[in-house]
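To make this tangible, we now present a fold written out as C-alpha cells:
***
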Amino acid sequence: MSKYLVIVESPAKAKTIGKFLGKKYTVKASMGHIRDLPRSQFGVDVEKNFDPKYITIRGKGDILKELRSAAKKSTHILLATDPDREGEAIAWHLQYQLQINEKEKCRVEFNEITKDAVQKAMKSPRTIDEPRVDAQQARRVLDRLVGYNLSPLLWRKVKKGLSAGRVQSVAVRLVCDREEEIKAFVPEEYWSLTGIFRKKGNKSDITAKLLKHNKKKINILNKTEMDRVMSDLKEVDYVIDDIKKREKKRNPSPPFTTSTMQQEAYRKLNFAARKTMQVAQQLYEGLDIGPEGTVGLVTYIRTDSTRISETAQEETAQYILDNYGADYKPGKARQYQTKGRTQNAHEAIRPTTIIHEPEKIKKFLSRDQYKLYKLIWERFLASQMSSAVVDTTTVDIMAGEYTFRATGSVVKFPGFMKVYTESRDNGDKEESGSLPADLEKGSSLEKKGLEPKQHFTQPPPRYSDASLIKALEENGIGRPSTYAPIVETIQKRGYIIKEEKQFFPTELGFVVVDLLKEHFSDIINIQFTAAMEDKLDSIEEGATDWIEIIREFYTPFKETLEKAEKNIGVIEIEDEVSDEVCDLCGRNLVIKMGRYGKFLACPGFPECRNTKPLLETIGVSCPQCGGDVVLKRSKKGRKFYGCSNYPDCDFVSWDQPTDKRCPQCSKVLVQKSVSGKGTVLKCSGSDCKYQEKAAVVE
C-alpha cells in the first residue's frame, strides 16, 4: 500500500514529481478539472444564493474512478495542483470527489518543480484556501450569468451561434475602438530638415536635425514654410554653439510576468500568446535534461508578480561574480515594484536555477523550448545585473536664427546589456553612435548638404498580440492566466481577424460591440470590468463575500436584460455580394467570414452548399506563368501566396512576392519583416543572400 497519493493536473507534471519522491508516494494526474458547471444547462440556481450545480465533466469518469481506487490504497492524499485560483479550485473539487475531510491538511503548493521545492512542500501541507476558491467560483458564476444570458439574446437578435463573454467582449471593444480611431484620423502634414556637416580636416560627418528658430521649437507645416527656411539657410555660417556631455545610467527591465513574457516572446520570437503559454507550460512541468533527469526549468508561468526569492538572488549574484566579475554585480540585490494587486506569494517567471545555461541544455530541448527558455533565462539574469552606463553628447549648431542638434551616445559600461535588452513595440531605435571627439564650442562647420523631408502624422497602430495583451493588463482586464485564452477566443468567434500581425475587427465584431454599448453599457465598459477584477481579488483576500458581489452585479443586469429583449429588433448583417457565380445554381456568391478568414459561399444555403476560396489578388504577376498571384490560406490559417492558375502552375511562396527581380540572380524579390530593420526585399532564391530596403511611404 502506498502511504501517500499525490494528485496533480497533468501527466508531464506527475512524471517529473514522481522522480523526486520515494516509493511511499504514488503520483496521479487529474487531467485538469474533474467537476464543472454543465455545458447544456444554465447550472446556477439564482434563487438559492447563486448556488452552482457542479457535475463530473464528460469523459472524466474513468480518471475519477482511477483516483478513487488509488485513494483507497493510500493513507494520505496530497493535492499538488497549480499555485493559483484555478489550481485551488481543482484541488477543492478533488477534495469533494474523494471525500477528503474539509479540515484535512491535504493541499501542497510549490512555485517551481524542482526536487528541493517539491520535497519541502510535501512536508508542509495546509487546508484548502476557501477565499481563493470562492474567488474562482465567483468568476465562473459571473461568466456563466453573462454568457448564458447574453449569448441566446445575440442568437435571436443578430445571428445564431454567437456568444458574448464578460471579459472577451471588452477585448473586442478595444480592437473596435482602435479601428474607429484609425478611421476618424485625419493626417497632418509636417516637414523635417536634416543637415550634414563636417569640421574642416575631419573625415567624419555630423548629422543634425533642425530643432529651433529664434531659440523656440520649430514646426514646419508645409512646403512653402520649408522653402522659406531653406532660403534663410543659403548664406549663413554654421558654428558649434554648445556641447553637453553627460553620463546616463540605464537600468534593466524586471524579470518576466505572464504578460511581459507573452509580449516579449511575440516581439522577439514571433510567438502568439497561446504558443508562448504552451511552450512555457512544458518548461514549467519538466523536461529530461540528461544526467540530471527530468526537472522543471522555470518557475510558475501564471503570475503578475516581479518578486524574486532570496535564494534565487543569492545564487544568481554568485553566478554573475563567477562569470562576469564584480563590476557586473550591483551592490544590493535588485527589487522591483509591481503595480496594483498582485499574487505576491508567487515569484516572477525565472529559471529554477541559473546554472542551467541555455547552451548547455540546448540539445535536450526542442527549438521552441530552447528559444523561450533562453529568453526567460537572459531576461532574469539581466534583471539582477548592474546598470549600463552610457556617455551621451549633445551638440547644438547655430545657423543664423536656426539651431540644429546632433546627438550621439556610446556605451561606456554595458552592464546588463551584455546579456539582454528589451525590445520595443514600435520598433524605434535609440540614438546611438559617437560624434567626432575634437569638436569645440565656437568651431565652424562646413555644410555638406541639407535634406528636407515631407511627413504625415500617423494614426494609432492596430493592436498586435503583444500590444493587445499589454492593453488588457494596463486596463485591468483579465488576469495572467486569461490573456492568451481571451485573444484566442475572440479570433475563433470571428469578432476579430489577424492580418499582417495586426488585429482587425470584423463587421460582426462591430455589430456585437455596438449592440452591447447601447444596451449593456456596464458589460462592455472597461472601467467596470477592471473594477470587477478588483472585487474578485478582494474575495480572494477574504475581505468580501462572493455571493454579495454576484448579487450586486446580477440584480441590475437582469433588469437590463429584460429591457434589451423588448427594445432590440432583429439585426440583419448583409453579406457582401461578389461578381462570381455559383457553379451549381447560378446565384452570385457572397463573401463570408470563416475561422481562417474570408471565403465565397452560395446564398442558397442549405439547399446549395457550394463554397470556394476567395482569391485576393495582390497586383503582382506570377513569375512562372504571368498569371495573377493571389493570397491564400493553409488549413491552419497561415497566409501564403500562390498562382491563380493552380494546378496548371505550381508557384507558391510564404512571403509576399513583388514584381521586382534580384539584380544578382534574376529570381523574384519577396517582402520580409526583419527584426530591427523593418520590411526588406529579399531574394527568393535559397542560395542568394541579396536583400534591399523596401521603399517606405511616409
